[in-house]
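Anyone up for a design puzzle?
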């Protein structure tokens, strides 16, 4: 390869790309699997935020696999080295895959924000204007990112000249200044970072107003505020966007941008899952069974046995099931005891009535309407 020094040829970011992608992706798979186990198996309550996270993981899986294929073809090394080894056709294939990668990367860090908005709407009981704010900001990121994809693929006419170098070198294509793409990408990244920061601090401000122990407040704020880390990753990614302007060596200059996009996407997904893993933490500490259904059954059985076998002076506890998480909590007691028999006293004497042994069980249903101010979560509360 004339004109290429051994040091230049050996320069590659491929191993760093693969190491970062697969390390973070493996962690994301583990955390998302734990989340889905909690929501589907333990709490038996799959919500819209869970479906959005599944869609995000599919996008992230595609991003990881496509990037891996591209690195094996030569992405991460210098464009001149790739062209010298495999010709212009190989370089064009790598550039085409890289543009597909950009599309997957943009959507993989945008979609999880919708999941976080859905999660906060479900667990924090926000007011109407707060819900509008959450969906407006996350929707703004989604729209801005979609426009960024359109800007990317319409930079040249025809669009295929983005990766077909021969069309550009022969003058068969016309392209807008690359600064248009770089500036808009930085604008989109800034919006994304701001929304990450908002999604991190909004639950903190809300939870501080609730009546609960400081320890619990701090734990919930830490779990729901991990999005601030994603904000930092978005800022670092914005610093890598000028690499898009390097048209002479795109396979090497954009490698760091691809890496930081992957980190941001994984961090957002992980941050959106951490608040839902409380039941697993309780299991590890031995304070919770493997199945919340089993826990509810045992609690109900113990309650029924207590009301059957004790005198009227013993308090009767009412059991409530949280509509989302199926958690059993004690919500109150009656001072006058429980009414055990469904028969009149004269029918109950000496077992005269054939149904004398039937006991009455009162099921108390607590209904509530959504108010304009956030309500404190139940005693055993998990997203």
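Challenge accepted. My sequence:
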């Amino acid at each position: 390869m004339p004109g290429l020094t051994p040091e230049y040829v050996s320069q590659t970011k491929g191993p760093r790309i693969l190491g970062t992608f697969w390390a973070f992706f493996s962690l994301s798979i583990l955390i998302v699997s734990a989340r889905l186990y909690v929501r589907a198996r333990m709490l038996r309550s799959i919500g819209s935020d869970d479906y959005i996270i599944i869609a995000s993981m599919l996008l992230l899986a595609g991003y990881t696999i496509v990037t891996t294929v591209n690195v094996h073809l030569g992405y991460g090394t210098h464009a001149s080295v790739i062209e010298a080894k495999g010709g212009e056709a190989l370089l064009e294939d790598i550039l085409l895959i890289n543009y597909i990668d950009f599309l997957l990367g943009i959507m993989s860090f945008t979609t999880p924000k919708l999941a976080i908005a859905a999660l906060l709407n479900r667990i924090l009981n926000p007011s109407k204007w707060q819900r509008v704010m959450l969906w407006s900001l996350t929707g703004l990121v989604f729209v801005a990112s979609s426009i960024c994809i359109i800007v990317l693929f319409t930079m040249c006419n025809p669009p295929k000249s983005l990766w077909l170098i021969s069309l550009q070198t022969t003058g068969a294509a016309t392209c807008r200044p690359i600064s248009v793409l770089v500036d808009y990408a930085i604008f989109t990244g800034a919006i994304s970072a701001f929304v990450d920061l908002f999604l991190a601090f909004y639950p903190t401000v809300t939870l501080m107003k609730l009546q609960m122990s400081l320890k619990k407040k701090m734990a919930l704020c830490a779990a729901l505020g991990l999005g601030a880390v994603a904000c930092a990753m978005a800022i670092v990614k914005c610093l890598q966007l000028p690499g898009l302007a390097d048209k002479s060596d795109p396979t090497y200059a954009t490698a760091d941008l691809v890496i930081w996009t992957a980190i941001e996407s994984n961090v957002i997904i992980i941050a959106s899952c951490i608040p839902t893993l409380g039941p697993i933490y309780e299991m590890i500490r031995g304070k919770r069974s493997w199945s919340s259904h089993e826990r509810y059954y045992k609690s109900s059985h113990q309650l029924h046995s207590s009301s059957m076998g004790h005198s009227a002076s013993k308090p009767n506890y009412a059991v409530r099931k949280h509509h989302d998480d199926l958690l059993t909590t004690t919500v109150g007691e009656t001072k006058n005891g429980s009414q055990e028999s469904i028969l009149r006293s004269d029918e109950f004497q000496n077992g005269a009535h054939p149904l004398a042994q039937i006991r009455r069980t009162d099921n108390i249903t607590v209904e509530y309407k959504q108010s304009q101010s956030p309500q404190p979560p139940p005693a055993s509360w998990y997203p």
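A detail worth pointing out: Confidence is low (pLDDT under 50) at residues 291-349, 351-356, 371-381.
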